[in-house]
Design the sequence.
């Protein structure tokens, strides 16, 4: 069934040019494919944001690497200016929560594709701050929510301390309640307990949502709580007395964000600044827990902890797509060597090795975009469910646990895939890929922290493996991601031989059945390892630590891969997919499937699923074969994934394919390109034998 | 046998501090291990260079990211200033060629560890230029050699063109001989043929050794030749008429180097500027080939093409070591989580997963340092051999071919290993690893082009696999790297079962025997694939292209790994290795061996070497076991590999281990850290509801 949408809101690509040769080989319209990958409304929002930015001089890109201080100034100004652009119109607030989130995510993605510093700065200062406020605050904190939303205050979220990041239980900042003045005394015992790496705190934030251990006057600790802590006078940006706040200095990337640290010196804040949704100090100065609406608390917690990670996944899919698009377009234009010594060069996209290096990332960008959207929908339906009064709390708990496992493994998986894609693209574009204007270096440096923040990939992933291990004995999978575990005995008997009797390599089911065996195998292996460690007298902590390598760690990679394949397969079978696009999506699926499976090959042999060479031969040959088939549609698939040139901003990956013409402009017009440098006298060699030369 | 060298020239490490706990667990002196990894003279040279730089204000590091233009100015000044430092004393020229090269390599390594931009700038302008001059020039070009050596001229090597890098046969710059004026007319037909990416050319070079196709007046092409082409007036740095030269702009890293492009507009240079070692235009204007001393020509070619690659290998081993050192020191100090919920945190080095992530890179730095030195010695002995009059030309040819194969596969292998080490270290150091002052970002950005320049890793490696495939039928291995191929039938019959009957996993031979099978298998597989492709009518070019993935490409990874293991094993058995150090080197070997073998696991199963789980189980368990053993010596091994703090320059990897104290200084003292920014008015939010907050 063909698309019926009016596609004209998607700007056309340049006609002709060196990419036309490959573009014409696809038998479908790239815009139709784009509308499979993203919803019409999402795309419209994105193009609208890009247009607004492109037309506003404040968002003109600099051609040179700005000093860090200047990057911060510009990002701060851009953030403030956002409110004037009316990027989020009022009617968005009247839509359903899901529609609202979709809209905001689309805006975030569009901003991130333009400037990660800007989008992360806004996400930290508005999104994450407000989510935390919803999860932890009450009516009396509404004013902060609104002010942050309208960008009337610059905020930040101060959790991490210098010596503790992932392990939030070890946070040492204290908040002692003083019943006399009804104030909390916030204190940082030493530098190691200073709040650190807090985005927006370095130069600009006036309010920090700060996590500290609440103590009552009897000396009892009531655990971590959130506090609204004023940092700077908003009129002057001068820090309040008792607050030693500063900027941690340059980072590898994201230098538009002012990451800061703060040490509190017995700094007093009023009683109402405690975020008191789950507990508060009453009139008598006694701590009281509040238990109400557990479903809503759970939903808010899910929203609070997961929104950032889902945002990172969406951003990383875009980053992955950008890297793949640049590499594919470059390789379709760049020619080198050829079969005849004196004959024509051929485009490097024709090389099998080159196809194998970059097409899997292009396929991954397609598959992971679709699966991330699917995960987002499940997440939103859980949040909607949590808002209903009559929800079954037990089912909701299971739902939240499963989504948390899915997100905790997908975030590492997608961020790592994007990381690898950028590096492979850089190398695949050779020297020209090393030009700053190729944008691959900025992509890498800005993407890098995604592997660490909002849960270090290696640590976060363990939350997924712990959940998966629990499913081994008792399946509680309302989302259905591991429903096959209900038939685990049957699954474990699977071998390559029996799977290959049922399905050939070109069938969707083949890889899925392999993955089901693999997941069972890895869960069982992890469970067994933990059991063995415990039987040697180790406690749960140590036992789990010793079951990571080649077990839990492989498991949390396989799980999101399987989820991605399943959801992508579902997408392929929807009625809006035309026959032509269906063929390409099928190839895309197979490339991603066998590329991913191949990395688990040792487990398949070690666990007895495969013997002899047939399985490895089949997977590898299939991958190469599907890559070869993909060549003719790869440029069109890249077009369907690509943001406009304004957002892609790569001199070697432009949609016009005019690689050398664009490089010529870059070479000739970069700042001072053709000038003798002002410092030429410093470079002249003093004791020369010039006369002789 | 204990060391007898006076080790006092190696500066001591700080006493005490948080690293002392792990340091005291080693039962040997880190300085003794350092003297196993590097020769005394080499170390003395390096420490001398580092001391000279540290004491000279011109080499003081900037605390902030400098504008590109300023980085270039400083690098140019530092390069000019080199001559004043007397870093290469005159007596070095009187030493043997091998000693001289060792000295110069040590200087290069020390400079590179301080600033890759500076060392690459010198290497391009002096080393590579002069090597090319030796290989291609004659007596009449001596003056350039001396002037470059004494840093009286700034030079560069112009080979790559905008549209052709690896494929030098496609170079399109022309040099037409004009017999009337006895001049060559250098011409660039269009922008795609502009020389590009030429280091030092952008702003400073006055001379470019330029590759162009020589044409005689009869219109005949005589192929690529080198020409000495004046670019700028050395007194003013203004380009000569007919030379359009400029800077290509910012790069991802190495921004101290002014990479440039140049287009020649029928630009005339004198007859004697042709580098005429292999051919020249005679008095009658006719081209004449010169064939003399083929051994020396071959030796010069080896020196010319390989020096840069060996230099990159040495630099990359240092980069790899730096990344591993930072990660190991950080992980020995950084604590997080612990077995008891309310108990102590433990250093993250105690985690099995963390050990497995970083120790293999520390081991790789040890093994690859030793194997690179071994390769360097074989290379120097070939060059020495080529200088003797009575050399056997055929043997020399074989020697040069084998060394070329070894270098062509080792350069990719080492640069990729360093690339991965940096990324893993960055992630292993978490957020703090993302601080610019951790230096991991600079390491990554400066190291990145090593995977591309002096032969793109993927393209260069194919020269090694082509040589290896040739050895399958006819072994010509004077260096002995593939002498086992003489027993290939026997090798191919090997299986895990028979190897494991002879050796246990803790024996040196186990991995070597596995590798010999693997190499035979992969050569045979590649050969077979090429044969199959040809039998389908494909020519050699296409057949080879289709034998890369899972065949030739795996082969050229396995070959340098095997070479590294063999040479490291030899080093372990030398008499200067004490018993205690021997134990640690043995563990180091085993970690590198099983970590590397593990990556080839699919081939071992696919090729029938292993069936069932025993092989994979054994390799993986051994790796984890040896990593666990390595923990107690890892900090000491890191000390033995580490350059002094001045060169390492990482706030999180300092030798004193005072992680948080050093971070405190960094946070508090970075430029403007505690100040309100000058642009604060731009950041203040205009329409505030301040009064309410």
Sequence:
């Amino acid at each position: 069934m063909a698309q019926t949408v009016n596609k004209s809101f998607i700007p056309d690509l340049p006609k002709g040019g060196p990419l036309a040769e490959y573009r014409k080989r696809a038998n479908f319209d790239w815009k139709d494919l784009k509308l499979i990958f993203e919803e019409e409304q999402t795309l419209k929002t994105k193009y609208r944001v890009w247009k607004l930015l492109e037309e506003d001089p404040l968002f003109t890109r600099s051609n040179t690497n700005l000093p860090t201080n200047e990057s911060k100034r510009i990002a701060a100004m851009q953030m403030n200016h956002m409110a004037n652009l009316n990027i989020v119109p009022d009617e968005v607030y009247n839509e359903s929560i899901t529609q609202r989130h979709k809209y905001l995510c689309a805006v975030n993605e569009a901003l991130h594709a333009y400037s990660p510093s800007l989008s992360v700065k806004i996400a930290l200062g508005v999104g994450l701050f407000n989510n935390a406020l919803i999860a932890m605050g009450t009516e009396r904190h509404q004013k902060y929510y609104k002010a942050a939303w309208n960008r009337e205050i610059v905020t930040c979220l101060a959790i991490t301390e210098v010596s503790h990041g992932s392990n939030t239980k070890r946070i040492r900042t204290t908040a002692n309640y003083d019943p006399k003045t009804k104030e909390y005394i916030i204190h940082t015992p030493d530098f190691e307990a200073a709040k650190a790496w807090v985005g927006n705190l370095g130069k600009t934030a006036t309010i920090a949502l700060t996590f500290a251990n609440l103590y009552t006057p009897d000396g009892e600790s009531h655990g971590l709580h959130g506090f609204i802590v004023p940092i700077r006078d908003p009129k002057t940006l001068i820090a309040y007395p008792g607050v030693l706040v500063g900027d941690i200095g340059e980072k590898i990337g994201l230098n538009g964000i002012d990451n800061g640290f703060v040490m509190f010196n017995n700094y007093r804040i009023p009683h109402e600044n405690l975020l008191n949704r789950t507990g508060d100090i009453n009139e008598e100065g006694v701590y009281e827990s509040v238990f109400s609406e557990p479903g809503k608390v759970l939903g808010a917690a899910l929203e609070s902890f997961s929104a950032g990670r889902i945002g990172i996944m969406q951003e990383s899919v875009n980053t992955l797509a950008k890297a793949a698009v640049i590499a594919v377009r470059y390789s379709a234009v760049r020619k080198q060597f050829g079969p005849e010594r004196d004959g024509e060069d051929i485009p490097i996209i024709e090389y099998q090795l080159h196809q194998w290096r970059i097409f899997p990332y292009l396929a991954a960008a397609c598959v992971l975009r679709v699966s991330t959207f699917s995960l987002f929908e499940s997440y939103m339906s859980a949040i909607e469910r949590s808002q209903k009064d009559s929800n079954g709390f037990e089912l909701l708990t299971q739902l939240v646990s499963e989504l948390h496992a899915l997100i905790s493994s997908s975030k590492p998986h997608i961020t790592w895939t994007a990381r690898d894609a950028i590096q492979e693209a850089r190398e695949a574009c050779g020297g020209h890929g090393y030009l700053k204007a190729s944008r691959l270096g900025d992509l890498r440096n800005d993407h890098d922290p995604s592997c660490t923040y909002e849960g270090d990939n290696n640590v976060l992933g363990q939350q997924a493996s712990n959940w998966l291990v629990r499913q081994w004995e008792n399946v509680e999978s309302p989302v259905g991601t591991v429903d096959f575990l209900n038939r685990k005995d049957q699954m474990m008997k699977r071998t390559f031989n029996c799977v290959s009797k049922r399905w050939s390599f070109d069938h969707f089911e083949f890889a899925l059945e392999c993955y089901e065996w693999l997941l069972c195998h890895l869960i069982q292996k992890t469970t067994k390892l933990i059991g063995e460690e415990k039987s040697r007298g180790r406690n749960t902590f140590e036992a789990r630590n010793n079951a990571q390598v080649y077990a839990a760690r492989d498991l949390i990679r396989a799980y999101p891969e399987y989820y991605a394949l399943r959801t992508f397969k579902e997408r392929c079978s929807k009625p809006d997919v035309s026959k032509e696009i269906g063929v390409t999506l099928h190839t895309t699926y197979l490339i991603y499937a066998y590329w991913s499976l191949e990395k688990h090959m040792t487990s398949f042999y070690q666990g007895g699923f495969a013997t002899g060479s047939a399985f490895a031969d089949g997977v590898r040959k299939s991958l190469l074969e599907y890559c070869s088939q993909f060549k003719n549609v790869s440029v069109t698939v890249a077009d369907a994934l690509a943001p406009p040139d304004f957002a892609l901003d790569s001199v070697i990956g432009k949609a016009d394919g005019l690689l050398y013409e664009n490089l010529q402009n870059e070479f000739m017009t970069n700042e001072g390109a053709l000038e003798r440098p002002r410092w030429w006298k410093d470079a002249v060699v003093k004791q020369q034998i010039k006369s002789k030369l």
